[in-house]
Amino acid sequence: VGHTIAVHDGRRHVPIYITENMIGHKLGEFAPTRTYRGHLVEKKKKK
To answer: pLDDT tens across 15-36, in order?
Structure first.
């Protein structure tokens, strides 16, 4: 508790700071593997 560990997410190492709430969980749960770019919004067509 109180340490920073680098966890690999498939592309790079993500620094994860360990807190009390993380005890009992696996480190991979805190390293997101996918980037969310939002839903694409279609542009309105001009008439």
So the answer is: 999 999 999 999 999 999 998 8
